[in-house]
Amino acid sequence: MAYVWHWDVVFQYKEALLKGFLTTIELSLLTIFFGTLLGLVFAFLKKIEHPLIKYPTIGLLETLRALPILVIFIWLYYVIPVFGILISGYSAAFIGLTLSLAAFSSETIRSGIESIPKGQYESAISLGYSKIQAMVRIVLPQAYKRILPNLMGLYIHQIKNTALASVIAVGELLHTANIIISATYRPLELYTAIAVLYLIIIFPIVLLSFYIEKKLGVGVKQL
């Protein structure tokens, strides 16, 4: 018996799907921004030779990289309240996604910084730049061009990871679709619709990644 598609259910719940779509975009943009900033901080902390700073930072980053993002979500959402700290599903997803991206992006940023010849940094210092000015004005702009393709790959992966926030009741696309499916029993139509919506978010970034790859002559890391 052939399956009868009922696409009207998608249009019937278009407002709910749009809200989930916007939540996914919001969560993606916020965690990409703060995750990259935190990754930059971690990258600098790893370069500090003081053992009380360097090794705890390495331990934290390796732990975050080893843990599945789903485990981080569940721990933040269900375990932290045991200690009397209430946290919403959205906050847990935001913190988990930000920390996860920071852990992975920190290594990319660190390798980019170290790929710049040390002589350029030293020359800037000799010309009167402070250490911070030399890093911000000389080293980071060059490193940014080298690591941007790989960061784009991490950002694409980050958008996909937002779907896992559905397990802690965050109203993103997948969670919204599951609620509608439970009411309509039309899973194929809804999952197809959210697949298209994810493509709408990710495909422009993929095209931008290809453009960067062509422009800079550096491959984008596929995740």
Structure description:
The chain is 78% helix and 0% strand. The protein is mainly alpha-helical and 223 residues long. The protein has one domain: MetI-like fold, CATH 1.10.3720.10. Helix 3 packs across helix 5.
Mean pLDDT: 91
CATH superfamily: MetI-like
What helical percentage do the residues reach? over 70%
Class in CATH?
A: Mainly Alpha
Radius of gyration: 21 Å
Distance between the termini: 38 Å
Task: Considering the chains and any ligands shown, give keywords for the structure.
single chain, 223 residues, mainly alpha, MetI-like fold, 9 helices
Outline the fold blueprint.
Elements: H1 8-12, H2 14-47, H3 51-66, H4 69-79, H5 89-114, H6 118-126, H7 131-161, H8 173-184, H9 187-216
Helix pairs in contact: 2-3, 2-5, 2-8, 3-5, 4-5, 5-7, 6-7, 7-9, 8-9
Describe what is shown at a glance.
This protein has 223 residues and is an all-alpha fold.
